[in-house]
Amino acid sequence: MASSAFRDAFWDILTDVAEPGRQGIPAREEGRVDPQVDSGRVAVVIEDEDDIRSLLADVLQQAGFHVHTAGSGQAGVELVREVDPIVTTLDVNMPGMDGFATARHIRAISSTYIVMLTARTEEIDALQGLEAGADDYVTKPFRPRELRARIEAMLRRSRMPAPGAARPAPPAASPAEEDHDAATAGTDWLEHKGLRLNVEMRLASVDGAALELTRSEFDILAELMSARRRVVGKGELALMLRGQRYTGSEYLSDSDSRVIEVHMANLRRKLGESPAQPRWIETVRGVGYRLTAR
């Protein structure tokens, strides 16, 4: 637990809420489950700094989660395996197994939503984090109100099938179907030039081969394929990932824009296409993305 001096000095700044024990909010006790907490809302906090780990645990518990904590990547992986959380926050800069390696190990065994927390701001770090399987990437310092909002938005999205779960094979496309531009087949498959997507089954394939995508990559691709030739802006995609509706007046931060660009770079790498000569997705400079013409 964080020291009382640390809490008194920084709690209101770091959390935007009253300290546990103030204003009628019960303090968190190790090993105790709040009877008002939904038993299905389990979270894991993986953070090597004791004070930050404790504060994150308090913030998530106040958001209605039953929280488990770990002080290292290896311990965090075992904890995720044991408690099967719906969401996991993960610090990047940990000794030993860092956050990137930890995320890859977690993604191999769990479909938990992963939010990476780090003081790093370089785009390459965001790329590595999202490529490792993270669903979102938040830089420090951050406002816990924003963290809670992002987590709640993720919970409104469909979870990917658990690793190792049996998946039905995508049906082979007929020559006629392959000529359709983002047409929907009778089995609800979106199609475009050999790229096939089933939103309900969370399955994707390209030229008959299964395509392994992260949750965010899948949702972005589904949004683009559903829009066909309509240009989808970065702001629209960012809000879609948060479960919010785009109206055209929302502010798009540099961080939001960078996250979408990183997801798109990873998606194109997995598709094996070049932005300069795209087969499936083209960039409309300064606006967003859309499917290529037939």
**CATH fold group of the largest domain:** Rossmann fold
Secondary-structure arrangement, i.e. CATH architecture of the largest domain: 3-Layer(aba) Sandwich
Distance between the termini: 59 Å
**How many domain modules?**
2
The main sheet comes to: 5 strands, parallel
Q: Which radius of gyration do the C-alpha atoms yield?
A: 20 Å
Decide which structural class fits the backbone: alpha/beta
Give the beta-strand count: 13
Strand content: 15-25%
Strand order across the largest sheet: 2-1-3-4-5
CATH superfamily of the largest domain: Response regulator
Q: Give the low-confidence spans.
A: 8-36, 165-170, 173-186
Averaging pLDDT over every residue, what do you get?
78
Report the total helices: 10
What spatial form do the alpha-carbon principal axes imply?
Answer: globular
Task: Please write the CATH class name of the largest domain.
Answer: Alpha Beta
Q: Bin the helical content.
A: 25-40%
Output the helix-strand order: HEHEHEHEHEHHEEEEEHEHHEE
